[in-house]
Design brief:
The complex is a heterodimer of chains A (212) and B (361). By secondary structure, chain A is α/β, with parallel strands linked by helices. Chain A is 39% helix and 14% strand. By secondary structure, chain B is an alpha/beta fold. The chains are: A alpha/beta (212), B alpha/beta (361).
Chain lengths: 212, 361
């Protein structure tokens, strides 16, 4: 039934998915399992679909960093794609571009440890009482800043699409994964445009309380 | 009209509770509708739960005027006082529980044991985490009165789920009870929920003192220093009383969020490094992880989120990189045996992939 529905959406038979308001979706993340990450062609096709839908910023994650290694190939093959950090520097915004970010496990715990060590060094150099508990040196804001110093993006994705056999974030940076909606899309090999559109459309209708 | 209902007989469930409901003329006192933990006079005016047959809820007193709601499962919504059409709930003693109830309870217990034996042929998660979402929606859905009505229903669900996990042989259960972001709710609601939690902690202390914890160890994880002194003292006492128990270890996350946990762990480990006077001051991952609130338990194998949500809500995002995230549309008080069994079966199906992933990591 899902396959039939997906094809119907792809063919434009379901008017509900005709236009999607992407204002809520500022940052989309895609988690790809290792086996799928080895096949760049599918990743490129997915990015082309996302560009067609109108998504402006995509973070691509695989735990081993295989997509990072194929970064140049992906940027050459996906029309209008640029690295996120380059788009941020570019003063002439172009509506047809898609900003890409390549993320791996090294951006998770390893990055937090690098940031923690920066804070530790600052703490050591500061003058503080012996019984100090470090509350002025180690806050969420300090850790955010330190992560930026080590080159990490600290923006929280609004939606995380998981392409793999199971519903798991597979080690996506924990610091960024707070209220992100996590949707399991199945394997990348059998991805469907209609399912992608449906998932994004469903996200735009979600109301979050953020704990309240 | 008299309707006799009873608990389902599982150990730790209100097996000895028989609830008699009578419909009478007006003028009854607003005394408690209670649910037992296998003994009498359990929750004070809390929720009486007989999962498959009848749900009764009280919020400190019987039923409010005009709020008797008849549904397929015969829900009666409470909140204080009694209606003119009057429902009186009376606790029966163990001796008054009739033979058919015993037989029924015994049959249910036997069926469950058989089911769990079959389930245990496959791998069982070492740690199951629950994001207990949906209490307020449950209260709204069933027209329950009182800010804590849904949460009281949720507590009954906690008892059942812990019982099932213990019977299955799950060693650890982690409960996302109250996140840091939940403090942003209305002050009345926050106070209500914290008072309810304190009530349950004190109840558990009584059980622990009388030796009725059934081998369950309770650990509280989170920024407990931010909670009031009375609550802190109660949690500390409960943790001490249950420290030796090993049948099931339950970690209750209160005043918790992953972002807070990471910051706290980084701070604590850095200060510790400085205090130790190490020559080479470099923080390792193990230094930080041993300072985390949840360092005492293994990482979750399975995370179950109720209420249909698709997010982790800042809960254990650091620890769940190899976890199966299972979601269910059922609201937390609706979570039952079959939901849990289904989630574990899914975990078992994915075991090969998860094991392969662990090796690669």
């Amino acid at each position: 039934f899902e396959a039939i529905e997906s094809y119907a959406i792809t063919l434009g038979l379901n008017k509900k998915y005709g236009s999607i308001d992407l204002e809520k979706l500022r940052c989309l993340a895609v988690v790809v399992d290792i086996e799928a990450a080895q096949d760049v062609a599918n990743v490129v096709e997915l990015l082309q679909w996302l560009t067609t839908i109108g998504v402006k910023q995509v973070g691509l994650f695989d735990s081993q960093g295989l997509l990072k290694k194929s970064k140049d190939l992906i940027l050459e093959t996906v029309p209008g794609s640029m690295l996120l950090e380059e788009i941020e520097k570019d003063v002439t915004p172009d509506g047809k571009r898609i900003a890409l970010e390549f993320i791996s496990s090294s951006d998770n715990k390893e990055a937090v440890m690098k940031a923690a060590n920066i804070l530790l060094q600052r703490y050591l150099k500061s003058s503080h009482p012996e019984d100090d508990k470090g509350e002025d040196f180690f806050t969420e804001s300090h850790l955010n800043d330190a992560l930026r110093v080590v080159g990490e993006n600290v923006h929280v994705p609004d939606l995380l699409l998981v392409y793999g056999p199971i519903r798991s974030h597979l080690g996506f940076p924990a610091w960024r994964l707070r209220y992100t909606e996590i949707v399991h899309m199945g394997t990348l090999k059998y991805m469907r445009y209609g399912s992608l559109l449906k998932a994004i459309h469903k996200f735009t209708g979600v109301h979050q309380n953020y704990g309240t | 009209m008299v309707t006799v209902l009873s608990g389902d007989g599982g150990g730790g469930c209100p097996a000895m509770v028989t609830v008699v409901v009578r419909r009478c003329g007006g003028g009854f006192p607003a005394t408690a509708v209670v649910a037992g933990d296998g003994r009498y006079g359990g929750d004070s005016g809390g929720v009486v739960f007989r999962r498959r047959w009848l749900w009764l809820s009280g919020g400190g007193g019987g039923c409010p005027a005009g709020e008797v709601v008849g549904r397929r499962r015969r829900w009666l919504a409470g909140g204080g006082g009694y209606p003119a059409a009057v429902v009186v709930v009376v606790m029966n003693t163990l001796e008054e529980v009739d033979e058919s109830t015993h037989i029924f309870n015994a049959l249910m217990s036997l069926m469950r044991k058989f089911l769990f034996r079959v389930l245990c042929v496959g791998p069982i998660p070492t740690n199951i985490s629950f994001i207990m979402d949906g209490n307020r929606r449950f209260a709204k859905k069933h027209n329950l009165i009182g800010l804590d009505a849904g949460h009281r229903a949720g507590f009954i669900s906690v008892k059942y789920i812990l019982q099932y996990c213990k019977e299955i042989g799950v060693p650890y259960v982690t409960l996302h009870a109250f996140g840091m972001d939940n403090f942003k709710r209305g002050p009345e609601e926050v106070k209500c929920v914290m008072d309810l939690m304190l009530e349950k902690v004190e109840l558990a202390i009584d059980q622990a003192v009388s030796g009725n914890m059934n081998g369950v160890r309770i650990i509280f994880a989170g920024d407990l220093d931010s909670l009031n002194e009375h609550f802190r003292a109660a949690t500390k006492k409960l943790m001490e009383l249950t420290e030796e128990n090993r049948d099931l270890i339950v970690v209750v996350c209160v005043a918790y969020s992953t972002s807070l946990e990471i910051v706290h762990a980084v701070r604590k480990s850095c200060v510790r490094k400085c205090t130790n006077g190490d020559d080479l001051v470099l923080l390792e991952l193990s230094d930080v992880e041993e300072c985390m609130y949840t360092s005492i338990v293994p990482v979750p194998d399975l995370v179950i989120r109720t209420g249909g949500g698709d997010r982790l809500s800042n809960f254990m995002t650091w620890q769940t990189s190899r976890s199966l995230l299972h979601r269910t549309e059922a609201l937390w008080p609706e979570l039952g045996l079959w939901h849990l069994v289904w989630a574990i079966l899914k975990f078992q199906r994915m075991q090969d992939y998860l094991t392969k992933k662990k090796k690669l990591d």
